[in-house]
User: What shape does this take?
Amino acid sequence: MPSAVALSPDALTPDEFTARLRALAPRYWDRHPFHLRLHEGRLTAHELRLWAANRWYYQRAIPRKDAAILSNCPDVDVRRAWRERIVWHDGDRPGEGGAEDWLRLAEAVGLSREEVLDERHVLPGTRFAVDAYVTFARTRPWVEAVASGLTEMFSRDLMARRLADMRLHYPWIAEEGFAYFTARLGVVADEGKSTVDIVVRHCRTRGQQEAAVAALAFKCDVLRGLLDAVDYHCAGGSS
Ligand SMILES: O=C(O)c1cc(C(=O)O)c2c(n1)C(=O)C(=O)c1cc(C(=O)O)[nH]c1-2
Assistant: This one.
């Protein structure tokens, strides 16, 4: 698809810009101490439940974040592609979609649907971090909100590793609990690529490119904030 506007003279080339975005990989949550303990099989069932219940709050926010992007985006091609993401999470009817699969994971680790849906285990730090992500998408230019979702570029390897390590270390989790990850792994590479394409195509000035890099850094912090809250609680803290 042709670019609507030429790159401004001070803008990074697409390759330089993409490299700047990818350079944020060390800020991603894959090396967070909580994730490391999860991968090493060192989490208790209680800690896995707390993680699943807090991640639920993130999962539920994603389609609302994507709907905010749709409402702010004047480009019909982007909107047409983006709306698929909402359907992926919400499904076309009750009992379908990524959110439903996450609930199945929560049940497989020992939570009842009721205690997930009423959010009784959601920690204040999780709420602040995730709500900030939705507010960011509502209030910032739509292309920055799209760029904030670029953590997905880094998520495929993490999810594949999580799936393998959870099957290995937590054999008591029934296989149907992993449907979210197996389904997600089927779409995440394509979604990540199309998100990069949109961001590169629509950030035409150096200022827009820098804002996109900052948006991705912000999102890495949102994710780390969520795990910080869970990790602190596991260590005996209260938030
Ligand atoms: O399991 C993970 O580590 C992980 C990470 C991320 C991410 O990096 O933002 C997402 C997901 N999963 C995910 O399942 C998902 O649907 C998703 C949507 C988004 C987003 O920002 O739009 N990130 C992620």
The mean pLDDT is 95. The radius of gyration is 18 Å. Residues 62, 149, 151-152, 155, 158-159, 184 surround pyrroloquinoline quinone (CB under 6 Å).
